[in-house]
Batch of 4 targets.
Target 1
Amino acid sequence: MKTIISSSGNKLNSEFDLRFGRAAWFCLFDDETGKSIFFQNEHSEAQGGAGTKASEFVIEMEATKVISGDFGPKAKELLEKFKIQMVILDNAKTTIGEIVEKLAGK
Amino acid sequence: MPRRKRLRKVVAPPGFKGYKPYGTSGKVTGHVELLYEEYEAIKLVDYDGMNHLEASKLMGISRPTMARIYEEARKKIAKALVESKEIKTAFGNAWLDKSWYVCEQCHTKFNLPDNITQQACPLCSSFNINAITKTSK
């Protein structure tokens, strides 16, 4: 099962990003292989539609779960439609590594 | 640009996809779309017997907006009855209250799409989860 986590950097010790569409990076974590890959978000500076673009990216990567701080109405609608689970964390101080550990630990 | 529509909180979606008239002499001509928030408005006001102010607070919108949605819902149902049209439900601008949960252990909020059968926290796998209601939101 693949999970997308919004991240502010491209390393496991980078801080988690509370924004979804405008996160600088996305971390793709696969709990079958235990690998995490980072992708730069090309639309983080976009004028509009960043949430939609980010949701499309998640669908393209065939992830089943997204972890972020909040989801806008458009992103929510799209993710709901594709039955992708949305997980809202409000702790910005946590790192990607810590989240990945929790996901892998089950 | 018009102001963005505030999402209306709907506690539970309607338990049906629609209503169809039967015994009509002619064929059924078209349908009306009843939005989730309109169904919710009818339910809160006419079924649960709330006044508009109470219902508006539950749905997270202002009283005038609530009254407008309610008005529209009645118009649609009346239209369907008189013109023997089908009633179909549509999502509208709703935010489903029941589909969001909070984990009591790590305070993560999440939804459970219907393809996920396990009722557990996606992060810490705790089973100590609760549906988010208007009081905890």
Target 2
Amino acid sequence: EPLGLGRPALPGEVTAWDVSVLPDGTGLPEGSGDVLTGEEVFAEKCSSCHGEFAEGLDSWPVLAGGEGTLTDRRPVKTVGSYWPYLSTLFDYIHRSMPFGAAQTVSVDETYAITAFLLYSNGLVEDDYVLSKANFLEVELPNADGFYADDRPEAEYALFRGEPCMADCAAEVKVTKRAAELNVTPEDPDGRPAGSLPDLRTAAAETAAPEAPAAEVTAGDAAPASAEAPVEAPTAADPALIAAGESVFKKCSACHKVGEDAKNGVGPTLNGVVDGPAAHEEKFKYSKALLDKAEEGLVWDEAALGAFLENPKRYLKGTKMSFPGLKKEEDRTAIIAYLASLPK
Amino acid sequence: AADPLITEVQDWASAFGDPVDATPYGMPIRFESHVVRRNVSWLTESPVSSINFTPIHALEGTITPQGCAFERHHSGAIEMSKQDYRLMINGLVDRPLVFTFEDLLRFPRASTTAFLECAANGGMEWAGAQLEGCQFTQGMIHNMEYVGVPLRVLLEEAGVQPEGKWIYAEGADASSNGRSMPLEKAMDDVIVAFFANGEALRKEHGYPVRLVVPGWEGNMWIKWLRRIGVYDQAVESREETSKYTDLMPDGRARKWTWVMDAKSVITAPSPQVPIRHGKGPLVITGLAWSGNGAISRVDVSTDGGKNWQTARLTGDSKPKALVRFHLDIDWDGEEMMLQSRAIDETGYVQPTKDALREIRGLNNVYHNNGIQTWWVKADGEVENVEVA
């Protein structure tokens, strides 16, 4: 018997949240998009990670190619080579992309990007238009490449039965050693990270090993340490900087800072505050930002604050897909943090 | 010589310690600061879509403290209040419903202790021994006591229609990470949980509400749960087609590989826990678990699988939960090749990695439940190796 808890979900609420698209087309919204539009939208919203041609930058997912590689030692699993259903692609783009700005791709744009990815995979011509009407006509090449879990039949029988307890092998030889790869994170003393301390040495000698990824919160305001910049901005507030460092985690997927920082999806941000826009020579900025830099844009607190509040409104055509920091306190904190970094 | 720690009056034996209001909610003492989650930065492109590892080498018993239980996010851990929380049930139901957090608190509750293991736990070890330490090789696992509402109760409140054969659960975060599961599982032992280990879920574990799917792979345990849709078919979302499917040697792939098969690992000694006390009494300990039921036995070998002896299960062995095992030996100071193998109540015996590779090939990175080997040297140092 129902308890009568909860309330009816309103049709508008269901529409807002139930965006699932199923293999048989259930949930597919009205709309359409063509390859060329898709190419443009992809270049703007997707290419900073997936590459202009869906080839995948750095370790971000490759979306095109890979046909015939599924039995290779290094298979390339893409929309064309691996994904069984087009509905999955539409659903995922519309629901979860771009990374860091989910649910900002419109229905027609989603059709267009989906059409472009079919084109990138050599499955349609460049004049192709995908719509709700013809969506189910598309069958992806690997549609038949999956079968339901068969471990109970294929494996379990082999692994049941009383196991051997004595003299089970004649000889045991080491065949592989992790030590030869040497890719384990290490403690400062070269031991595997997180090794238990030697209890026979004095506690003082092992005191306070460095804990990785310690939570930094505004309340943790560490006293200004030797790492603080020599030319500290006037009245640098350690609590604010610490809060900014915490907010910066949202940015760190794309932007690196610090001594060894390299450009990634976004440019490094050392010295960005109060510096000229587009300061990183080796980074490929959007035309929109380069134009602004030409006009003499300087990232002072006001300009940076406005940009961070709503990047696309402040700078139409920016490649930065981040939707923005809506809280003023977050913007103030992050600018303080960025200003605290060595140039 | 006499030990000054005994013969001299120490500060702590004379002066005050901390007052009761020093730490209203405590953290571990600083001497335990090495016992933390760790990530392996080269594994992923971004720390907001990444994984870290439980320090299982440093824990005992079976319950994993939330603060060091591994995290996997697909778009970062979001901050959601109980006041802002909504859960929708829709699709093939008689009454599409929206629940607030307070609504959930008014349903009859259930409790379960269950392990959560990532399907990729041990994935980096599939091609060969790679990382030094069970934190990294088997640490995508945790085990907590959950309290919440059985999903069955909520589905019955909405009234599942006869055509409804599958549910699809999704999160409120930007990834939404939706997963489908058959209705039978949803009506069986799945819990919509809001407490773990006696306290509210931590943010990184899905505060205020997550799904608990005992025995099944971790990515189905949707965090920040916002919607349960009832359908007549699987949604075939990105996380159940492009990811979390198992490529086989013939180029086809297994899908819907939900169950985590029986597995075990010796947590000490291990590469992060060398033997420093020399020969003599040695405690060998580890964890075992099975998504198919309770662990009935764990065997340990000190010679790389030639000979085995049955270890002691310490505490209750519950279905779909971690169990602790111990083997107390008199170490002669010679090299050892330590292995453990779990046997669950269905009679399934944890296989070797080679036995799995023979069936699944080399491109199958998920569901590696093969036997782990630790090479203990005469000096007590421990290496991750494979033997044949």
Target 3
Amino acid sequence: MNESTKYHALDASKCIGCTHCMKSCPTEAIRVVNGLAVIDHERCVYCGQCHRACPTHAFYVEQDDLDLIRSFKYRVILFPAIMIGQFPERYTEDQIYNGLKKVGFTHVYEVEQPQQVLIDSINEVINDQETPKPAISIYCPAIVRLIQGRYPSLTENMILRKAPHNLAAHFAIERLMKEGAQREEIGLFYATPCIAKIAAVKSPVGESESVVDGIVNMNQLYNEVMKVISDVEVEDNSEQRKNLSSEGIVWSLTRGESCHFGSRSIAIDGIHNAVRFLERLENDQVHGIDFIEMRACDQSCAGGILLTGNRFMTVERLERRAKRYPAAKDISQETIRANRIELKEKLILEPIQPKPHFIFGKDRMKAVEKIDRAQRIVCFLPGIDCGACGSPNCHALAEDMVNNKAKMSDCIFLQQMWVDEGKIKAKKAFLNVQKKWGTDRFKADCNKRGRRNEGF
Amino acid sequence: MKLTFTIQGGDFTHAGHPSSEVKKILKQLAIDGKTIKNIVIALYEAEVNVVAHAWKGTVNVEIDENKITIWVIDEGPGIPDVELAMQPGFSTASSKVREMGFGAGMGLPNIKKNTDKLQIETEVGKGTKVKMVNYFS
């Protein structure tokens, strides 16, 4: 995997090697090595749990330089309606739009605008007898990656229709070109609430190339806008959101999608909830459900890790805002109707391939041996899942051992027992732990990172 | 490779643990999704049978390069007429079990449909022993 496909990374100067991230990861993609967290990018689904869990904010998200926008004549900021919900109540939608323009964008575009087209298209998939049920939404890219990696047999249940940001990008380009812009003069930038969307936009699954020219983190954009936002009344920008519907505004919230589809639908938020449910689904223990909406963050996108506002306040503001907007079916969208056939094709995603990431090598014979060995190793481990070995739990440590990524002596309990049995010297045991966690770890130091003032 | 699990009769909350564990291992072995699904469905149905009807049971799993063999052994009422029990829709489940969404009479037929080899030994008043074999493609 090349560098450009890593959308988040760890600042080694901030990481205190504390195991919080490792334990929160839904795909066991993190290990602590030499006192620092290390992400296995093959397993990572970009759900952002590690960012949330980190007490020192050591994870950071790659993003494009905001100055990049200057190289385009037409600078479009595409953002999900969630963005509006970040700002304090006293700022109107127009003041926020105006602020985005002051930051340097020429066109401001909320992505959930052509919603009826998307609703119709998804309904077509669900009503098709051939579609495996329950059909699963691909809206949350972290869920798509989770299914590809951990539940490969469920990839065929995913609805191959693009997410709103792709559609919006298409419409934004079309509109500007109608106004006389050349394609290369248009710079499309997407304000993202999470890392998963960055990955989805930059290296999309089921699409040949990325639709946008750059990514802006929503929290950074929020800070930029807050520097320049006006406190007085500004010009009316409502023309730019004339296609925004009540359904579009709440689309990214929990039940925003599921309320439209199937006679029986389920909405799940939070990645660990999703994991538990997918497990059931894969065991064929879920019957009669037509549609499943699944999002990695609690409160769906309102809980995105790159947001500033409180997720519950965001939900409340968006729900209130939605009441002021018309229903999607009542919005006349001339361009959409005119291009219906062309649009229909644009909406379709390529089939999503499974990418199982838990395989123990290609040779089945050897794999059986390895798993068998791991099962036997587990018998010797204490089973308290403390993480002091640098693996998230005893089972993961056993698997790491058979994959030559860890050794028996990494378990501090086994080591203690060996010292007691006189199998190794105490000094040697101590050196082992120091090697894992660093020499500074054991010094008394009240200003040690992750200690003072960082408890509950 | 051998695995052993225990099942508690009447405990629907925890039914499904053995099938999830077996599934995890089969995924690690890169067994194709369709085969995994068959195995997991059959095992889950067998587990639910023990939970719904028997007092307690054990699941023994043996995996080698080409196949998986699963024995689900219970101490329970046994099956008086296996042939009848194999018919879709036939059920002796109590109304309490049915209210929980189980006991539709599809257990054994479903197991049969999803396994390559199925063997049932049963003794009324003592228990039932179900052996299932699935071959990897």
Target 4
Amino acid sequence: MKNSVQNLQLPESIPVSLNVNGQQHNLSLQPWVSLLDTLREHLHLTGTKKGCDHGQCGACTVLVDGKRINSCLTMAVMKEGSEIVTIEGIAHGDTLHPLQQAFIEHDAFQCGYCTPGQICSAIGLMNEGKANTLDDVKELMSGNICRCGAYTHINEAIMQVKEQEAEAAILLKNTEASGLHEVSERDETSVPGAPAREAELVTEAEGGASHE
Amino acid sequence: MNSFSYIRAADPAEAVSQLAQQSNGKFVAGGTNLFDLMKENIEQPPYVIDINRLDLARIEPLPQGGLRLGALVTNADTAWNELVEQNYPLLSKAILAGASPQLRNMATNGGNPLQRTRCYYFYDHATPCNKREPGTGCSALNGFNRIHAILGTSEHCIATHPSDMCVALRALGARVNIKGVNGERTIDFADLHRLPGDAPHLDNNLEHGDLITSIDLPEKQFKTNVAYLKLRDRQSYAFALVSVAVALEMNGDQILEARVALGGVAHKPWRDEAAEEQLKGQPATADHFKAFADTVLSGAIGYGHNTFKIELAKRAIVRALTTAAAQSVEEPSSQPLV
Amino acid sequence: MNTKYTGQSASRVDGPLKVTGKAKYAAEFAADGLLYGYVLNSNIASGEILSIDTTAAMGIKGVISVFTHENVEDLTWFNIKYKDMDSTAGTPFRPLGSNKILFSMQPIGLVVAESFEIARLAASLIEISYKEYPHVTNLQGELDHSKEAPMGKIGYVQPKSRGNAEKAYRKAEYKIQGEYVHAAEHHNPLEMLATTAIWEEEGKITLYDKTQGVSNVQMYISNVFGLKMENVRVVSPFVGGAFGIGLRPKYNVFLATLASLELRRNIRLVLTRQQMFSFGHRPGSVQRIAMSADLNGKLTSIQHAAFGETSTYEDYTEIVANWSGTMYNCENVKLKYELVKLNVATPTDMRAPGAVTSAHAFESAIDEMAYAIKMDPLEFRRINYAEEDQVEKKPYSSKELRACYDQGAAKFGWENRPLEPQSMREGNQLVGWGMANGAWDALMMPAKAQAILSADGKLILSSGTSDIGTGTYTIMTQIGAETLGLGLDDVTFQLGDTHMPMAPLEGGSWTAASVGSAVKAVCEEVKTKLFEMASKLKDTPFKRAKIKDFAVDHGHISLLSNPSARLSIVDVMRLSGVNSILETAMSGPDPKAKKTHSFNSHAAVFAEVKVDADLGTVVVTRVVCAVAAGKILNPKTAGSQILGSVVWGISKALEEESVLDNEFGRFMNHSLAEYHVAVNKDINEIDVIFVEEHDDLVNPLGIKGVGEIGIVAVAPAIANAVFHATGVRVRNLPITMDKVLQIAEEDKNQEEVPLLK
């Protein structure tokens, strides 16, 4: 596994501007720093997990421009200008995202390590709009390994939120048809697709300057 | 991972000339395999040229018929593109059988064909590998070769090409548009990948500096009688042990044209056009399918742990053909298990 | 209307932290001037390092140091100092202890640099030359060199034979025999092993470590590095899965500590997924079973010889064949368990160690035996039901396995099962139903807990245990709230810190019983304090009341004889002038109970598979797992434990296999792409049933633990279902399509035992 000597020069840092959870971060990063390590080690947003670092487990799933990706297999410098949403940007202040709430209700996790990736992935799945049945959900959530084996509960949580959304959509449609618009502000957090919003911003202080 | 310089290319011409200047540089699009390999020091490009800003992310109908898939369209966007779903459902099925939703959101049409083998030995510097380090030997030949090739192998390499998408592209007869140092050219998808021979370090026939700009799907669409059957060691998110892409043109029960490509069995998506002739004009029966499968696998060689693939591939071909002929209606099998 | 929580479902109290990404795992603690480590592992399985050249690595800007066996000094001379609470017989592995290579992927160097990326690059530049020795890694090829398993690992007992099994077997008319094999498996929790080491001052360190036992790590590190116990603080509030891999301290915490102490810096070391294959695993096994029965279905003999792998330097033992002596009524039993030494890392406990290995073989054999006399496999098990522990000749404290049979079979619809294999079919799919049962120890260890009740009525409980996803935080909160009559929101349970009272390793399914009993005990003491205080209050109905006269609920104290006489706990403390109550308590198993009774949890598993008749693909479409594990503290979290165990069992039966290339002596599929664990799509309907099981003897809480019992019988239930679907007995896990089709080159099913006479 020898690297040739020509590589001994370290890569030059490049200014990178990342929009994470609605907050602009102006960083100077070497191009070999993955988006995952940037989130965890540079921005102290440790909610995004490293489970394999090779795109084989899904723990590092984040939303980039509304789409779910493995943050371990992309370099941060490549995401200049993109809107990135991590698990820390999903809740609306103290109000949990419906999926977060459903995960708790259905006990859709045990150790919790895959959970942020599962939730981000589920939001991505709902944004895609391709999962119509439980079987679809199972296939389209198979990029997120849960070693504790909470799959059936994960699926129950997702199906519940999908149904809630479908009901909400019907309600909204009926309301619009009847000319009433006062529910237009209904549960913003459940609207799929909005990759960034004015969420509770997690800043450097969250990661803490000390280990306590 | 080695230290590398990151260059963001603005247009295809610039990308090609930038890469041409750097003998060991690499383009990066999705990065799903390149960074995976770089983390293991398998790939060590001193220059990584980011082509994601190139204007190659569209899917558009071709004037003479057919569909052009931009190289930077993601696998997910391709699989779920309305025109692809309607007219080339085989491609949608194959793409969706591969990787995970997250990876398909990253991986691109230009990058997918260029992913490298998943051979354990290729990935592990502790073992010899002719693909990784030419001349060191093939560890898989006498090693644990469950996932390895049975067709078109050489004594130097028995690695497989891991893509699902490419199996469908091979069956559909796609063409690859390439921009190179000496201009643009188009090659048959069949000629993109190569067999290992005595140079297994070369996966394909691209020249250094070549950039896949798009992949063209032919006018001929195969809208109905198609099947993609993928056999693997778990139900999803695993590479194929054997996969079969089938596209049939039928007239009632009669086969007018058959396209059958195999994945997971060779260094490239495998197709036997001569054998396909065998099916032309024949009724879609299990006997014809079995005879065809026997022909396709007649030159197969097992290396121990992967010998089962010969029989498995035959069964998979029969099943996929049966499914495609029946327009996805599964029929009870007549064949006993043991 | 009472504050009763145990036995009731409650959502995880740590749920909000986990779904928001705020739960912090070992590699997620920030620190000033943090350095990063990257481990270098050996390419060979046996030999020695001749030279190790770190010049190029050290030449990189940002590299602080490279640790190898050449520059690690001043550590203890004594091997015994490297022992830990889950050690086995033998000599523990000493990371960077010498130039000897004992197994492939052995850690041989640590690079410490200013960034993870620099450390990773530098590690790849280290030049090593080896002298290779021959190695042996093929378990099946080495059975002739097996040896008796020595004592040494806590809990290990050698299997006991009885009667004359060989004679009974010879004389029997109906008999079966078979050889069962499964490959090594790696735990692969989703969080990789990691340590963040904080250098506090000379000789003092804080370690955020991924572990199932902070005390074990503390003891190990202080012994190895010669630090005072109180100067080693180990913290582990959240663990991203472990399944046994966090029981023994691993080289990550050793190396991080080494570098931190040496460099006087804070260091983070996260292993790679590949490196998660560089230490203990569930040992591969070969098991030979012969069995006979009479035509009435009575077992007349059992012979079970189990061979497990171990390393060259330690003897890892499991309880494997022993289970075959206890599960059923049988007079003639011959059991053997032997080890084969291989050039691999010492195996380590993995979810239901031993029991799951044993059940795969033994419960498959039971199915084969039932088929040999053409009897329904469940009926066969009922006939041979063991009312008491057949080895110890002691009654069980409780054993509701029959209820598991009844309720599991009813839920599954077992009564509609045709006996003949290959008798159910849906299109291309052959449908099969199989079942198996299993047992696990209901253990209890000494544990301590602390309680602080503040003047505002809030209770903080703590114990140095861990929650690896098992629900410890939640059930301890429930126990505390119930014992003191508080709301769940009023109680906080803290764990995973050596500053807290000591708890046993989090394993063996004993945490709920052990720590739970300590928590209950300490809360009882607080309660007594409160009652004493109340009885001294003037002008209240409580005056001079006796302890036994009191009750608590909803944050209030009342008199049993006069429930309307109530005073809030806050008021009791205020009126007594007490700001807080601090108590510590310890609990442990009752040594007398063990003399008179045996303690086991039990489960019966029913599985449905669909097997493609042409392609051999197996899908587990339905599982019912009926469990008898005493009182269930929290059906919601306990149900998840069983659910997860079933998923593990499916994964084990169909997918998991660490492939050793014997040429290189190396696990080759060291990634999550090629080491397959179950994904979402693999998992279908799973029903968990907890049958009623009342047990006053097992421990004060009447609970048996649920972390392991769920997995034990899953793989054989699936293997038996595959047989029922296809008529093919796959005795070699995992059950892959090539084995089902009997076209696998390495298929060991060629010597077919006649099954259906």
